[in-house]
Amino acid sequence: MNSQTQAILATDKRIDGKAISAQVLSEVAEQVSQLQAQGVQPCLAVVLVGKDPASQVYVKNKLLRAADVGILSVEHYLPEHTSEETLLSLIESLNEDAKVQGILVQLPLPKGIDEIKVLEAIKPIKDVDGFHSSNVGGLSQGRSVLQPCTPSGCMRLLKHVCSDMSGMHAVVVGRSNIVGKPMAALLLQANCTVTLVHSKSRDIQSLCQMADILVAAVGRPEMIKQDWVKPGAIVIDVGINRVEKDGSTRLVGDVDYADVWDSVEAITPVPGGVGPMTIAMLMSNTVEAAQRQHALVSMNRVDGSRESP
């Protein structure tokens, strides 16, 4: 690893997302206790439209983690045929409910519902997914906003491994609005030199070979091999792909974990890497949203303002 990489804090190449997410959840539980002592009960409203099996599993896991850390959850299960108008009406009521500090609409939504319109309907201060344009724009400007959960979880993993990323070359493979673009913004905030690689990039392999930090978020099973990775690189694998092999299904990332192992300084496994961090950061965002709204309400009581959080 080059001299810019700084001291590596982990003793093992494997970056344990389960262990680090447990640390985050412990911190969140303490913050929840502090809010409860002030008379504030953090509450997350989760909206699921339809019966997509994967979405049902994700929602179940989020609700379990919320209960673990003391966050109250309010669940709204809507049928597949729910109209956009009905969904927007529900979001408006949750926006105005002072007892709800976080709103999460599970994606994807059924056909016929405008995802962007729905996400834009959520108040930015309650947008615990960090998808509202105000939060997205604020992130690109370096302002303190609610950040998308997966990229912020990736940053927490990186900071566990490397104390200072300043000057390091980070390559992000994938330019999605949910992971790739906000990941690049967060790495820029950490003073990295950032390259964002996508399907139209030329000679992607050579670009990846330049990375001190390589973040794979493209959704192609085991696309990145050893000869794509710079020796001593830190690899964050966001991909979760189901593949069939020998009659069974297994989960793999966008990186060929076994193939790159000997070359990397540190790497996240799949599963057990980025996945647990996404839900942990959702809990963290919910508490942060509750803290901000409580502070705003307290300020309004002092100055007489009627502004609603």
UniProtKB/TrEMBL annotation:
Gene3D superfamilies linked: Leucine Dehydrogenase, chain A, domain 1, NAD(P)-binding Rossmann-like Domain
InterPro entries: Aminoacid_DH-like_N_sf, NAD(P)-bd_dom_sf, THF_DH/CycHdrlase, THF_DH/CycHdrlase_cat_dom, THF_DH/CycHdrlase_CS, THF_DH/CycHdrlase_NAD-bd_dom
Pathway: One-carbon metabolism; tetrahydrofolate interconversion
Domain (Tetrahydrofolate dehydrogenase/cyclohydrolase NAD(P)-binding): residue spans on this chain: 148-293
Entry keywords, A to Z: Amino-acid biosynthesis, Histidine biosynthesis, Hydrolase, Methionine biosynthesis, Multifunctional enzyme, NADP, One-carbon metabolism, Oxidoreductase, Purine biosynthesis
Binding, NADP(+): 174-176, 240
PROSITE patterns: THF_DHG_CYH_2 (PS00767)
Keyword Transport appears in the UniProt entry: no
CDD domains: NAD_bind_m-THF_DH_Cyclohyd (cd01080)
Catalytic reaction list: (6R)-5,10-methylene-5,6,7,8-tetrahydrofolate + NADP(+) = (6R)-5,10-methenyltetrahydrofolate + NADPH; (6R)-5,10-methenyltetrahydrofolate + H2O = (6R)-10-formyltetrahydrofolate + H(+)
HAMAP family: THF_DHG_CYH
Summary of the function given for this chain in its UniProt record: Catalyzes the oxidation of 5,10-methylenetetrahydrofolate to 5,10-methenyltetrahydrofolate and then the hydrolysis of 5,10-methenyltetrahydrofolate to 10-formyltetrahydrofolate.
Family the entry assigns: Belongs to the tetrahydrofolate dehydrogenase/cyclohydrolase family.
Name of the protein: Bifunctional protein FolD
Organism of provenance: Nitrincola nitratireducens
Taxonomic lineage: Bacteria, Pseudomonadati, Pseudomonadota, Gammaproteobacteria, Oceanospirillales
